[in-house]
Amino acid sequence: MGGVHNKLNDFGIDDKMMKLVAGEVDKGRSAVFVLYEGKWAHSIELVKQVVQDESALLAYSTLPAETAAALRAYVEPVAEE
Description:
Helix content is 57%, strand content 0%. With 81 residues, it is an all-alpha fold. The chain is globular, with a radius of gyration of 15 Å. The model has no long low-confidence stretch (mean pLDDT 76).
């Protein structure tokens, strides 16, 4: 039942996309996935600079507002405990 619950309530980073990326990462290299909430207009510029300095690749996207709201509604009650 836990697996079904998790699958129905998985609002995080897409598992299929992470597996696809993992298949493209060379041995000895790594990929980092971050789920971030907040105003990140300034933060993303800092991240872009670090990525450029390291000759790395950055791929990012934003959640639709309704998905972000669903994630918030799911996490906030647990965070308050």
